[in-house]
Write a structure and sequence with these properties.
- The complex is a heterodimer.
- Chain A is an alpha+beta fold.
- Chain A contains 6 helices and 5 strands.
- Chain A has 2 domains: 2-76, Ubiquitin-like (UB roll) (Roll); 83-151, [2Fe-2S]-binding domain (DNA polymerase, domain 1).
- A 5-stranded mixed beta sheet of chain A has the order 2-1-5-3-4.
- By secondary structure, chain B is of the alpha+beta class.
- Chain B has 3 domains: 13-208, 2-Layer Sandwich (Aldehyde Oxidoreductase, domain 4); 224-295 and 354-431, 2-Layer Sandwich (Aldehyde Oxidoreductase, domain 4); 302-346 and 443-725, 2-Layer Sandwich (Aldehyde Oxidoreductase, domain 4), CATH 3.30.365.10.
- In chain B, 27% of the residues lie in helices and 24% in strands.
- In chain B, the strands form 7 sheets. Chain B has a 7-stranded mixed beta sheet, sandwiched between helices.
- The longest helix of chain B has 28 residues, at 126-153.
- Classes of the chains: A alpha+beta, B alpha+beta.
- Chains A and B meet through helix 1, helix 2, helix 3, helix 4 and helix 5 of A and helix 17 of B.
């Protein structure tokens, strides 16, 4: 049995500890917002947080989450109130949308660590997340916009 | 994808066949309205079946809760059709936009593409083909709601008006659409409706936010890979390592005993491991030992193939276009130049790898997948299931990218899933790993363009001869008969050079079509993805030969092409063409017509230590009448990035019949830190609507390559760009 928390809820699972966390989240826990894109930490579609760190869950064995707190896109905010989600809405960022869960989860760590990120900070934090539709210019704008919202105190 | 030709591409051509509208009360008590085409009785039969509330042939449903649901017959793969098509309907309906939602259409002949005669998404055609359809549906619905209100109030319908989801009369009468839905459903639909004057549009033409964004920000949007059914298992396949290889035997001793593995079976596509979860299936698949009969492709090598292409280009091909005498004009030209351009096979590389879920029963089959080819996929699934197509329900999920790959003429990813479901005996989802997806074929074909051209003593272009060598996409598909009728070449191979817009008196275009056993397919912008590169780079080379500015040289040759000229000037002006740039930076320009729209781009690049960096791209787009400029901007940007990714990074190569690339590390996509600043400028006019999903792609490669020349004086004649190969 492997125990950890997901979006604040405690889970105990009977699962092969070498199984990638991604597939446990998607198949055992039914949280399909976290996506499979490459299986080798190349594209970032599977990004989740483990104890607040952005982790590519496609290469992280579920055992790595043992005793820790996992946050997925479903836990970012249930009602789209997170400043990043609001900024994504205002900039109308997604196209196909498949990569956006991972983009948001990477951006969330960036904003927490650097509340006023520069373009270089955005490059550094977001370069691991591929978007095939080419939404990068809008993602960049949305991150800046979310940072402004936070700075103005309109959001946590 | 599928070419829009003059005779079939008239927007709304299909609408002329519409003779009347029918409406019916849905089980919810709301109003369903749709088009009824003569000779199709599905609506009538659906009316006899009250359980079938999502009736085919219907484009809108209004609930008593005021919800207006627009049923969309094109797939949402990022291009925004779940917003732009509802906007058209809501505009004519005068709906309250905050109450408008969307729903993917089921598969039915009445949702067929009005120009292409089947239900599909491609060819950058959704908006222009849906313009009339969705506007008419909205206007007819509005007329019925007005009639219902007029009846209740006992007033002349002509005294009623509509606004934001309600019918109004005088100063104090108002009934919302939800209140009127049931009464309106009992009325006879109007034979003719008056469409709005575009000047009075409230939604169309505005950058309305996409309807599908919220669910794409919280993990709720359901893609094919997210489908979950009770008792479902997951399958992963061992696929042939070489195209055309067949399974000889397999040893599943290890795989069989692995946890979660339920069945291992051979199907035509390979060996399928069916397990409780994806990971179990994948691990067991990797433990299989399969022996393949390699067939005839085990020596296939893309390097040798390109050598063969170069040889072929030395002899004349099938004539595609012949104006004047290109050979004679070249012989007498003051200066001449020849260049050979090469582009590789490319993977569509959608972020969501291919997948398909099937629930096969004795007399029914349900399929969930992100399809661009519903009619074809349903028919092919039915064939394998041994059922009539009507017994197959295909549910279109969100597509995690499509780019043409999910419009497969053989429905490869659907057919194999039905085969697996037959053996599984339970609902099953087949998931392709990224590596499976990349090696699975159906690529943008590799192409070679050998071009010769000449200018006279005053620097006027006098001769152009293009010889193209590359595989046909249409050959061998069910569309070959229609698309290649009477032609010795594939129009999809030569599109974008057969209509060379430049005023050059002597032009010859010839095509060689080698047969190679690598499955090829339409890839975002199809033939234009390589013809624009060759044509726009060669025009640049001719300009240099004539010692003229590449923008002005194009201008002079496009005097009779006002829309080409319009976007060319717009891009040049916004980019500050001719103004000084920082040291080490250069500008390149390109212009191209594709899918009914005109595009031009200016790229600004620097080259350092052999590495090309794109700093800025200025895009101009003229797609005629448009619906949502926000979506157009997104598509123009996305298209430029898609084209730039291919130009800078992407190539599939084969050695000994085996694909050398496996995943994003060997087939890279442009990333955030490599992404240039992009600005898009839209031409505002009332020309016939064109496409937007693809036209942004073709100019990127030539604009970047021409900018590299501006900085380095070296020509790029092969993609992806490698400075070591520049000449």
């Amino acid at each position: 049995m492997i125990g950890f928390s997901v979006n604040g809820k405690r889970v105990n699972l009977d699962v092969d500890p070498s199984t990638p966390l991604l597939w446990v989240i998607r198949e055992q826990l039914g949280l399909t917002g976290t996506k499979y894109g490459c299986g080798m930490a190349q594209c970032g579609a599977c990004t989740v947080h483990i104890n607040g760190d952005a982790v590519r869950s496609c290469v992280a064995p579920v055992s790595r989450a043992e005793g820790k707190a996992v946050t997925t896109i479903e836990g970012l905010s249930p009602d789209l109130s997170n400043p990043l989600q609001r900024a994504w809405l205002e900039e109308d960022v997604p196209q196909c949308g498949y990569c956006q869960s991972g983009q948001l989860m990477s951006a969330a760590v960036l904003l927490r660590d650097k509340p006023k990120p520069s373009d270089e900070d955005i490059d550094e934090a977001m370069t691991g997340n591929i978007c095939r539709c080419g939404t990068y210019p809008r993602i960049r704008k949305a991150i800046h916009r979310a940072a402004e919202m936070v700075a103005k105190g309109g959001a946590r | 994808m599928i070419r829009r030709t003059m005779n079939q591409g008239q927007p709304g051509a299909g609408m002329q066949r519409r003779d009347f509208l029918k409406a019916s009360v849905a089980a919810s008590g709301g109003l369903l309205i749709g088009f009824h085409f003569p000779g199709i009785s599905a609506l009538a039969s659906a009316q006899q079946s009250p359980a079938n509330t999502f009736m085919p042939n219907a484009f809108v449903r209004i609930g008593t809760d005021e919800r207006v649901t627009v049923i969309v017959n094109h797939s949402e793969m990022g291009q925004g059709v779940y917003t732009s098509l509802p906007m058209l309907l809501a505009e004519e309906l005068d709906a309250d936009w905050s109450k408008v939602g969307f729903e993917p259409a089921p598969v039915d002949a009445k949702y067929n593409h009005p120009a292409f005669g089947m239900q599909m998404t491609g060819g950058s055609s959704s908006v222009w083909s849906g313009l009339e359809q969705f506007r008419q549906a909205g206007a007819a619905t509005r007329a019925m709601l007005i009639a219902a209100a007029a009846q209740q109030w006992n007033v002349d319908a002509a005294t009623c008006r509509t606004e934001s989801g309600a019918v109004l009369s005088g100063s104090n009468r108002k009934l919302t659409y939800g209140h009127l839905a049931a009464a309106a459903a009992k009325l006879t639909p109007p034979e003719h409706v008056q469409l709005k004057d575009p000047k009075s549009f409230k939604l169309v033409g505005k950058p309305i936010k996409r309807l599908d964004t919220p669910e794409k920000l919280n993990g709720k949007a359901e893609f094919g890979i997210d489908v979950k059914l009770p008792g479902m298992m997951t399958a992963v396949l061992a696929r042939p390592p070489i195209f055309g290889a067949k399974m000889k035997s397999f040893d599943d001793t290890r795989a069989r005993s692995m946890p979660g593995v339920r069945k291992i079976i051979a199907i035509p596509a390979g060996v399928a491991v069916i397990a409780d979860t994806f990971w179990q299936a994948k691990v067991a698949r990797d433990a299989l030992r399969v022996e393949w009969d390699e067939g005839g492709m085990q020596t296939f090598d893309t390097g040798k193939m390109m050598q063969d292409f170069r040889e072929r280009a030395k002899s004349p091909g099938s004539s595609v276009r012949k104006d004047g005498d290109a050979a004679a004009a070249l012989a007498s030209a003051a200066k001449k130049i020849e260049a050979v351009y090469e582009v590789p096979y490319l993977s569509h590389l959608m972020m969501e790898p291919l997948n398909c879920t099937v629930d096969l029963r004795a007399d029914s089959c349900e399929v969930w997948t992100g399809s661009q080819f519903q009619t074809v996929d349903r028919a092919n699934a039915a064939k394998i299931a041994g059922l009539a197509p009507e017994k197959v329900q295909l549910h279109t999920t969100f597509l995690g990218g499509g780019f043409g790959r999910r419009a497969n003429p053989q429905s490869d990813f659907v057919v194999e899933a039905v085969h697996v479901a037959k053996a599984a005996g339970v609902p099953v989802k087949v998931i392709w790993t990224r590596e499976d997806d990349m090696a699975g074929g159906w690529y943008r074909p590799a192409f070679l363009h050998a071009i010769e051209g000449g200018v006279d003593a005053s620097g006027n272009a006098v001769s152009w001869r293009s010889r193209l060598v590359g595989q046909s996409i249409m050959a061998g598909t069910p569309f070959a008969a229609m698309m290649m009728k009477g032609k010795e070449y594939d129009p999809a191979s030569v599109e974008g050079v057969d209509d060379l817009p430049y005023a050059i008196p002597n032009v010859a275009v010839e095509s060689h079509q080698p047969e190679i056993n690598v499955p090829v397919q339409w890839w975002r912008s199809v033939g234009h993805s390589h013809t624009a590169f060759a044509v726009e780079c060669f025009v640049d080379e001719l300009a240099a030969l004539a010692q003229k500015d590449p923008y002005q040289f194009r201008r002079a040759l496009l005097q009779k092409q006002p829309r080409h000229l319009g976007v060319l000037d717009l891009a040049a002006q916004k980019a500050g063409w001719g103004k000084p740039l920082a040291k080490g930076m250069g500008r390149g320009i390109a212009v191209h017509f594709a899918f009914g729209s005109y595009a031009a781009q200016v790229a600004e690049v620097s080259v350092s230590e052999g590495r090309v960096r794109v700093h800025r791209m200025v895009c101009a787009i003229d797609c005629g009448e448009y619906v949502n400029p926000g979506i157009i901007e997104a598509q123009a940007e996305g298209g430029a990035i898609f084209g730039a990714s291919a130009a800078l990074f992407q190539e599939l190569t084969f050695e000994n019949g085996r694909l050398q690339q496996t995943n994003f590390h060997t087939f890279p996509v442009m990333r955030m830190n490599e992404c240039p600043e992009i600005e898009t400028h839209i031409v505002n006019n009332h020309e016939k609507a064109g496409g937007i999903g693809e036209p942004g792609v073709p100019c990127a490669a030539p604009a970047i390559a021409n900018a590299v020349f501006a900085v380095t004086g070296k020509r790029i004649r092969r993609l992806p760009i490698r400075m070591t190969e520049a000449v």
